[in-house]
What we know:
- The protein has 471 residues and is α+β, with helices and mostly antiparallel strands.
- It has five domains: 24-33 and 183-261, Efflux pump adaptor protein, beta barrel domain (Elongation Factor Tu (Ef-tu), domain 3, Beta Barrel); 40-62 and 153-180, CATH 2.40.50.100; 68-151; 267-348 and 423-468, Alpha-Beta Plaits, CATH 3.30.70; 355-414, no CATH class.
- The protein has helices spanning 65-78, 82-106, 112-151, 320-332, 360-372, 398-410, 437-446, 448-451, 463-468, and strands at residues 5-11, 22-35, 40-45, 52-53, 58-62, 154-156, 161-166, 173-174, 178-195, 207-212, 220-227, 237-244, 256-261, 267-270, 273-275, 278-280, 298-301, 311-317, 340-353, 379-380, 390-395, 416-431, 455-459.
- Helix 1 (65-78) packs antiparallel against helix 3 and helix 2 runs antiparallel to helix 3 (112-151).
- The longest helix has 40 residues, at 112-151.
- The chain is elongated and about 115 Å long.
Amino acid sequence: MVLSLFFLSWSLTSGAEEMPVLDCIVTPSITIDVSSPVPGTLADVAVDRSDIVAQGQVIARLNSEVEQATVALARAKAALDSEVNLGEVNLMFDKRKHKRFDSLYVNDVASSQDKDEAERNMALSKEKLKHSRELRKLRKLELQKAEAQLKQKSIRSPIQGVVVQRYKSASEHVEEEAIVRIAQFNPLYVEAIVPIEQFGKINSGMQADVFFEVFNETPQRATVTVVDQMGDAASGTFGVRLELPNPENKLPAGLKCNVKILSDFPVKQAEDSESNGEVVQQNNNLETLAGIEGGDVIAINLADTPSIASCSSIGPFASSSEAQQLIGLLQDQGLAPSALTLSQERSPRFIVLAPNQESREQSNQLMARMKDAGIQDLAMMWRGRYKHRISLGVYGKEITLKKRVNLLAQLDFETEVVELSQQTNKWWVDVNYPLSNSERTVLTKAHPQVMAGKQSRPLACSEQLSRTASR
């Protein structure tokens, strides 16, 4: 019997190890200083502080008397057709004249010189008509240019938002300086500073409650959208950004707050194993292994975990609510609820570490040697499980990871690569029996809105789950 080995990585965010409450600040999602694309004198600034503006709304105008006159002149020139009409009349006359002289030449009534002159006049008329049409086309292009120059005199808002500052007024001359500052308050960004030992435990897509210092209202729900992949060595922290919906602009920006990352259940994801050409995945219903911390990589013998014919996983879904719709449909077909689970897809992340040193002084000496060798983007880990170790970056692409490790190897520096797991925004419904192509086709035809663009993939399931889901 061939024993297959695969790597199982997970991050635990259960209630046994809750996330700490973090300090944060609320900021606009976009802040733009709007200026004029061309220099000029302001004729009018149509907005003031706290005004709500729509995307594309005119917020200021420059003096444009010259540009308006230029547009009027270019429009009049573009409308001229007299030259073209005159060319068409001359060409029509010269064609008839050439035809007559050609007939007379055949009957020896006209000389070859007269015939050549008639051909010359007809050719000239054709070129003059072509020249007139080209001039008309150029005048239309000049009109477009004049209209574009006039359009530059109207400054429009590039986003929908609120004017937070007005810098200029009518009659002031502007060149590159800003006229107004506009901020977008829907959504808001919540910027949090997190201790470095929490790295790998917070992932994009996780939910959080935001508490405001000046409001005694219920907490607002936000979603993690950005997790910095490099920490700050001086403070031993890294940054996390959350997105907070604010459709009616009820919440202002600039608030101090506290954020609590929600960790209701452990999140686990088994990595694919390629053994004899077969791809096997570990089901999310495996019991949590005690004593494993987030980011550890361990080897499991599949002989210790009885496996059966592959189960199925259907997805991906953009949100858990969409995936729950499919679970409801499958339950309506008589499938036992215990045979259905909801899992969130995770993608691997790798942190590159320098070898562990015996003391902090040795770690500082190693960092100094690395800096002298020209190595950039490195930081000392001051707390947590990697205390006094040097981080050389976190990578999500294998090709980038290999470049980093190879570069360090060329400089005679050893490294250790630890695999982390990074949560994505994709959800899958795990069905504990093999879903055939015909069954998936029938399901897609019956519920196209739920199943559109979805696929099924094999999923390893234990013998116990197989008995639970047996049909």
